[in-house]
């Protein structure tokens, strides 16, 4: 059910006011793209939003994101009310962070993506999972898991400021502020510069 022109205008105005990162014409484009994706989705959420499958296609085609674990986590971060559906508000607000977020917003976003079980820490196991998926397998004689374990230990040594064997948000934030390249330390979850 397509929204009336007046409804679309009200929605765009509201989202433009709430969005810190997009101007009105950009919000209009994002809403239009959203409508196209919803129409393409033809899922249980018809008219409300789109599901994980459509979302993954978009992130893959628009931003070249391919890692399944990362894509699932990004979906979970976008899907704030955890109903399996990306609504237009979740879409515009989350893309604002993804594309134009401040360093603070991106640190929070990346941390949420890497905190696989949502307990407020990035554990050794979570680092292992993320790094294992984002690394290319080396020569056949090298045990790949050993290399990943070494990387986890290096990451902890560099980032675990309170030395409790896992990364809290504070640890992660401090490490990234000291060295911005660590923002995506456990796998690419932001679009590249283009």
Automatic annotation (TrEMBL):
<dbReference type="Pfam" id="PF13499">
    <property type="entry name" value="EF-hand_7"/>
</dbReference>
<dbReference type="InterPro" id="IPR002048">
    <property type="entry name" value="EF_hand_dom"/>
</dbReference>
<dbReference type="InterPro" id="IPR028846">
    <property type="entry name" value="Recoverin"/>
</dbReference>
<dbReference type="InterPro" id="IPR011992">
    <property type="entry name" value="EF-hand-dom_pair"/>
</dbReference>
<feature type="domain" description="EF-hand">
    <location>
        <begin position="147"/>
        <end position="182"/>
    </location>
</feature>
<keyword id="KW-0677">Repeat</keyword>
<keyword id="KW-0106">Calcium</keyword>
<feature type="domain" description="EF-hand">
    <location>
        <begin position="102"/>
        <end position="137"/>
    </location>
</feature>
<dbReference type="GO" id="GO:0005509">
    <property type="term" value="F:calcium ion binding"/>
</dbReference>
<protein>
    <submittedName>
        <fullName>EFCB1 protein</fullName>
    </submittedName>
</protein>
<dbReference type="InterPro" id="IPR018247">
    <property type="entry name" value="EF_Hand_1_Ca_BS"/>
</dbReference>
<keyword id="KW-0479">Metal-binding</keyword>
<dbReference type="Pfam" id="PF13202">
    <property type="entry name" value="EF-hand_5"/>
</dbReference>
<feature type="domain" description="EF-hand">
    <location>
        <begin position="66"/>
        <end position="101"/>
    </location>
</feature>
């Amino acid at each position: 059910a397509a929204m009336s022109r007046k409804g679309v205008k009200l929605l765009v105005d509201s989202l433009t006011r709430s969005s810190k990162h997009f101007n009105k014409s950009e919000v209009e484009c994002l809403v239009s793209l959203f409508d196209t994706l919803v129409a393409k989705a033809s899922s249980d959420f018809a008219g409300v939003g789109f599901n994980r499958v459509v979302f993954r296609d978009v992130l893959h085609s628009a931003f070249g994101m391919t890692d399944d674990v990362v894509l699932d986590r990004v979906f979970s971060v976008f899907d704030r009310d955890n109903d399996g559906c990306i609504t237009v508000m979740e879409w515009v607000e989350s893309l604002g962070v993804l594309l134009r977020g401040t360093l603070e917003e991106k640190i929070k976003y990346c941390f949420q993506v890497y905190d696989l079980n949502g307990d407020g820490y990035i554990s050794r196991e979570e680092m292992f999972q993320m790094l294992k998926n984002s690394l290319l397998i080396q020569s056949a004689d090298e045990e790949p898991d050993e290399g990943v374990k070494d990387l986890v230990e290096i990451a902890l040594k560099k980032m675990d400021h309170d030395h409790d064997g896992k990364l809290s948000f504070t640890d992660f934030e401090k490490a990234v502020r000291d060295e911005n390249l660590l923002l995506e330390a456990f796998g690419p979850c932001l679009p590249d510069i283009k």
